[in-house]
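The instructor's notes for this session suggest beginning with a concrete chain rather than abstract definitions. Hand out the sequence below and ask the class to guess, before any prediction is shown, which regions might be ordered.
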Amino acid sequence: MSRTLTAAPPSAAAPRWQMSLRTATRIKKTIITAILIVLSIAALFPFYWMISGSLKTEFEAFQFPPTIIPQEPTLENYQGLTRDLPFGLFYLNTLKIAGLSVLGQLITSSLAGYAFARLDFPGRDKLFLVVLSTMMVPAITTIIPLYILVYQINWVNTHYPLIVPTMLGSAYGTFLLRQYMLSLPKDLEDAARIDGCNTFQVYYKIALPLMKPALATLGLFTFMGQWNDFFGPLIFVDKIDLYTVQLGANLAQGQWYTDQPRLMAGSVMITLPVLLVFIFLQRYFVRGVNLTGIQG
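After discussion, reveal the predicted structure:
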């Protein structure tokens, strides 16, 4: 009697295992997405609260419980700032300080970073360690001798003490650009030297164009630092026509009373330029952060 051999039916364990794996992957992605959404809302809520507060009336700002959405939105707080204070002049002062600081910082830090990365001179590494060691000194510890120096050269109530120290470079900017330069190939520089370029021409024509992402990153950090600086103008500037936007917005805060909606409106006007600069430089900023520090 002959026997007929039939193929065994496919096991159902493998499809179930695959389905459970896909389900676990979907659940994991859903949980991660939910966590990211919650964290994003938590990060953006202060900005929303600032904008919402700037649109409230003074009475509504002090209501309890507070209102999330303004009941009677108004632009009076913005109009009051520009009407009662020379906020346009504050903007021009801050743009001048931030713009000149960024320009000087990029020039001096790129020169120093190129020298430490590409030039070979005695004591280069030891000198670089000395430069880095200055990052460990808190800026607040040098404010008294700095003020004495500024007073002796008659720079008090001017913008020079807010611009010149930053224009002369910083240890952080030098470190950032040096690390970026170390990640670039030297073949282009060697080819430029063969074509007859001197050291400065190699820096200006070869190295500087390749450093655009790192320069954008350093420029953004410098602009944000100068734009948001409150302590420096508070120490060195006493005339209202030299005020920055930080000091101008602080005028809404008195000794016994603070106009919260107007202070929120000033905060919105301060934050908006920084946000726009970051949006336009975001591509270079992210690339510079990713590529900086690859080599030591």
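Then share the key points. The chain has two domains: 18-54, 79-291. Residues 79-291 form a domain with the MetI-like fold fold (CATH 1.10.3720.10).
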